[in-house]
Amino acid sequence: MPRSFLAPYKFEIVGSSGQSFFNFLDSKKNEYYLDKNDQTFLRLDSVNFQNNKAWGYIKYGKYGARSDVIDVNTRQITKTIEFNESVVDEYFYLIEYDSSTNSGYMVLQRIGNVGVRTALLKALTIWGLNIKIEPILLGLRELLNNPIMEFRIKVPKRPRDVDRRLEKLEIQNEEDIYVEVIIKSKKNKSLQLVDNLVDRIKQAISNNDLSNIGYIYDEKEEISIVVKVGRSQRTINIRMGKARTWIVVDNVKEIRGQAEQLLENIRKEIGGSNVRSYKLL
């Protein structure tokens, strides 16, 4: 089972939808959104309310590929998922809403490398809500003080010097080809090779300007840093001068409690220098 993470966001509703945000959510319970371009499916599966909070689960999945389902005990194919069928996962959400400012905070579950923020934003927009959702970055400087276990750079195109080295492979330089450089520690030891980069990132955070970190190949490159926090790890993602991070879910059965704690952390730090809000990636 892939690990789960919690991603914090702030949101703002622009203009008036003609009803309160929570009433809007309640009216969309069990409604689905189908994205034919991305071949994804989303449904607001449950909506619960208490005071200024709403929580529940979003069903989300992809379709468009035929695949077999195998019983791992018998090794036999038990069913086939057709092109128009989708396997869906449940994603927890927690929303705190301030009706006086028409804004608030949102915590969304992420399973492995898959999150629902983009799909949810599209669904809410199609359903008639003009909403902006932006990531919140909590305590990045403190995270960077932890041991760094992995550092990687993903460049969305092949640099010219790499192209020359790959000429013998006869690979065309298409837009969907990228180069990824990974520096990873062995035997659970921390890296000692990226101190200069970490110093530059910390300085950029202090100046609230991640665009001056410096690039190796291309200004659109994506930098990921994995740090060790206790027994778990957190991934810091910096892309095109923007940054975000995700919080590991210790126990998915207690995900609501951990999401509530994350909201509390946002309230405590949102006015301090440790929290920055960045434009969407």
Give an account of the 3D structure.
The protein has 281 residues and is α+β, with helices and mostly antiparallel strands. It has two domains: 4-138, no CATH class; 140-246, no CATH class. Helices cover 19% and strands 40% of the residues. The strands form three sheets. Strands 1, 2, 3, 4, 5, 8, 9, 10, 16 and 17 form a ten-stranded antiparallel sheet that branches. It has a five-stranded antiparallel sheet with strand order 12-11-13-14-15, with no helix packed on it. Strands 6-7 form a two-stranded antiparallel sheet. The longest helix has 15 residues, at 255-269. The protein is globular, with a radius of gyration of 21 Å. The chain starts with a strand and ends with a strand.
Spans of at least 5 consecutive residues with low confidence:
272-281
Which percent range describes the beta-strand content? 35-45%
Q: Give the % helix.
A: 10-25%
Instruction: Tell me the number of strands.
Output: 17
Count of discrete domains: 2
- Number of continuous helical runs: 6
N-to-C SSE string, H for helix and E for strand: EHEEEEEEEEHEHEHEHEEEEHE
What class, by secondary structure content? alpha+beta
Shape, principal axes of CA atoms: globular
Radius of gyration: 21 Å
Largest sheet: 10 strands, antiparallel
Average pLDDT for all residues: 79
Distance between the termini: 26 Å
